[in-house]
Structure formats: structure tokens, C-alpha cells
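Deliverable D4.2, example record:
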Amino acid sequence: MSLNPSASQRIVRVLLISPHDEDHRHLREILRHSNWQQYGACTHAEALALLRETPIPVVICESELPDGSWRDVLSHFGRMSCPPSLVVTSRLADDVLWSEVLNLGGYNVLAKPLEMKEVFHVVSLAWLLWKRQWEQRETFAQTA
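Output generated by the structure prediction step:
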């Protein structure tokens, strides 16, 4: 599958990593009328296996996972040539979590329960950041 963002300008692939079925159902409902494609994983390991097979530019990750946390997911992104933008979700989304996510290289934090308007706003901007970074890598690779 191509990473090229211009190949699918209108389709945003989003991976939700959460052990909670209701989170997957809720995000599916939010995205139902969009042309965004939702992928799902319940654990860190399951998400990494999926990301090895399918390039996904935006990852929404529950703050705590059965086999790690959002920090473990972000750590893995550091080894990827074009890492996704990471958005962390938590019922306890506060300034401390937001600051930590941003300082460690994540994109943003969404409070749970997810609100449609916030999801579209944050994911759209996260995708645009990823797209810009991808295009810069491509330009650099062509000039190198």
C-alpha cells in the first residue's frame, strides 16, 4: 500500500488502539459519514503488527494499554521512516498528560468520551502535519 498522501487526498486512514470495544464502536459511529478509514487494535503488539503491513498516518491511542502505554507506541514510531501522528485519549486528559504527550513527540490529546467535532479537528490537523513531513522527506530524498 502506498504512503503517498496525494494518492488518496480524500481518504484519511486512522488507527485506534484501545482495549475497549465501546471506543472502537464510538469512533466508528463518529466516522460513519466520512470517507475516513478506521483500523483497530486492542494492544500495542497488535497495532505494531498492523502498522508493519499498512501505512497509517494518524494513530489514536488509549493512554494505557494491556501491554504498555502510549509511550511504548510513540517509542516504536521513532524507528519508522515516516511515523504516524500520535493522538492520545484518556478520560483523565489534563494539562500534565497534554504537556507530556507534546514534549515526547506526540501530536495532541483527546478527552474521552470522544466528541465528533474535536475528533475531526484534531485528526485533520494531525494528518496535515504527517502529510507535510512526508512531503519534506520526499523532497529531501530527491535532492540527496
